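User: Sequence in, structure out. Go.
Assistant: Echoing your sequence, followed by the structure tokens.
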Amino acid sequence: MNDIAEGFRRFTTEVFPAQAALFERLATTQQPSTLFIGCSDSRVVPELVTQSDPGELFVIRTAGNLVPPHAPGAGADGVAASIEYAVTVLGVTSVVVCGHSGCGAMTALSAGGDLAALPAVAAWLRHGEAAKARSDAGDFPAAEDKVAALVRDNVLCQLANLRTHPAVVRALARNEVTLHGWVYDIASGSIEEFDTGGGHLLTPAG
């Protein structure tokens, strides 16, 4: 906690004064161009990876970058509410779903171990079952290869879930938003981008 407090002190004394005009403008408005849906993993920092300034990204972070499909009448859903707000109110023109190497959620899903002690985690990971079924159909020589394939398949499946949300459906029909799938490799700093139409990977992300 001391490190965090010291970081905030440096922000207020060194970083903030240099960008005071930006923060003054952001105090009353935001116009992000991109909704970035990434993993909660502490090693994946959207603003750092994309070198974005404050106000440029609207960010949703969930374990495994999972996006529950739209479920009418399911009650309050923070992910669905954030998607709806970003697309309908803020008018983002791009949505990125970003998976990453070494994802703990995908590793757990691939292993299929006993999660009885983590019931909330087990329930959440069910949103990745379609991706697991897809990757299970592959033939991989090592566990790492299987997890890497699951990370990629999961991005595609979460993009499909994203397309079930009414706000996204409307924006796509009007050509007001584009969807992008990324896989970020922590060790190399590289990003692979999916051709979301054909499902294959493009390198690098553009």
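User: And one key feature?
Assistant: Residues 143-162 form the longest helix (20 residues).
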